[in-house]
Design goal:
By secondary structure, this protein is an alpha/beta fold. Helix 8 links the parallel strand 16 and strand 17. The N and C termini lie far apart (about 75 Å).
Length: about 375
């Protein structure tokens, strides 16, 4: 009996000693790093999140819980999401030996465009007997852009072919000496500088180089997300954003100079989107990121109030493309003024139905209906 009591006392002392040690030391030299692998992906693609927990002391940690919040639009493998909140609560459990570093990579699928981040993490530690839980908060930050997937359907591709033909046929064209298009027979009006002497020697007849042409037309994309209806149309807004991304991709491939303006609100600046004219892949990525940051939960501002001066500053050297989820009277008025000024424009109308009642024949001739154009 005395031995049993002695064992109980020793066990109690051991329990209290280890509890004291863990209370004072479990969080020392304990580090956490959580970051996304890569800074941007397109919606629908898979990404990876990396968790790194480092225990820099000799004391082993029998259980560590790592908790953090991220968006429910990043669906992790084998996870469930509470549909009543915009956040997804992650709770991972680790065991760490003394002076051990553990790295875990978690796959996820990006379901919706946006800018997503991780701001903080909590580490919950316990003692050897799992009777003690203490929490330490770690400040960290990492973000990932989920870019809108450019619209790519057969109907949209056909529209782009027509658009590119329209721009090139109406643009002021100059010969580009760096764009080689082929070789043809010499004509009396050809310059001697254009003669291809190697081809001439090979064929025995004069041959000249054909050069392609460069368009001087500047393209502007106006994305109108103003939704004045009683029933809101978030799905139509998302399709409109995809249309804008598809146009940006097309104009980059065609090496055109283009700009993007929208009354949609940037989730970072809380102001309408304005990306001035530019060209190339870097400009295209800037457009994609701006589109990713549009918060359709925040009401879009009046198109003419925020972009009226920009719209009216257009001239004959520009070709404008409007994308709209609505056909309200004020917007049709804007397009009618374009017709009156003989400005080049097209209107992508993201329709939730099939009726075009209330739209004038004049505007219908410049309208491209977007009906059920899904990815």
């Amino acid at each position: 009996m005395i031995q049993f009591v002695a064992i109980l006392i020793m066990a109690g002392v051991l329990y209290l000693v280890q509890r004291f040690i863990y209370m004072r030391n479990w969080a020392k030299k304990l580090e956490v790093d959580i970051h996304f692998e890569g800074k941007e992906i397109f919606e629908g693609e898979h990404g990876r999140l990396v968790e790194i927990i480092t225990n820099g002391k000799r004391l082993p940690l029998p259980m560590i819980k790592c908790k953090f919040l991220t968006s429910r639009n990043l669906m992790f493998d084998n996870s469930t999401v509470n549909q009543n909140t915009d956040n997804y609560y992650r709770n991972d459990v680790f065991t760490l030996g003394g002076r051990e570093k553990l790295t875990r990579t978690i796959a996820f699928k990006a379901y919706k465009r946006g800018l997503y981040n991780i701001k903080n993490a909590e580490l919950v530690g316990t003692d050897m007997f799992f009777t003690l839980e203490t929490v330490v908060m770690y400040k960290l930050y990492d973000e990932i852009y989920v870019l809108p997937r450019p619209l790519d359907t057969s109907d949209f591709r056909n529209s782009l072919q027509w658009i590119n033909g329209e721009i090139k046929s109406k643009a002021h064209l100059i010969e580009d000496p760096f764009e080689f298009r082929g070789i043809r027979e010499y004509q009396p009006y050809d310059s001697m500088k254009s003669i291809n002497w190697k081809a001439t020697a090979r064929t025995g007849e004069l041959r000249v180089n054909m050069r392609d042409f460069t368009s001087q037309k500047v393209v502007r994309i106006f994305l109108n997300l103003e939704d004045s209806g009683v029933i809101k149309k978030p799905e139509a807004c998302e399709v409109a954003i995809k249309v804008a991304a598809g146009l940006a991709k097309n104009f980059t491939e065609e090496d055109m100079e283009f700009a993007l303006y929208s009354n949609g609100v940037d989730c970072l600046t809380h102001r309408p989107i304005r990306i001035k004219k530019g060209r190339g892949k870097i400009h295209e990525q800037e457009i994609y990121r701006a589109l990713a940051r549009i918060d359709i939960e925040e009401p879009a501002e009046d198109m003419m109030q925020v972009l009226g001066q920009t719209i009216q500053a257009g001239d004959g050297s520009m070709c404008d493309y409007y994308i709209s989820v609505n056909s309200y009277e004020g917007f049709q008025e804007l397009l009618t003024n374009y017709n009156d000024m003989h400005m080049d424009y097209l209107w992508f109308y993201v329709m939730t139905g099939t009726s075009t009642m209330g739209i004038s024949a004049q505007l219908l001739s410049r309208m491209i209906p977007v009906r059920n154009w899904t990815m």
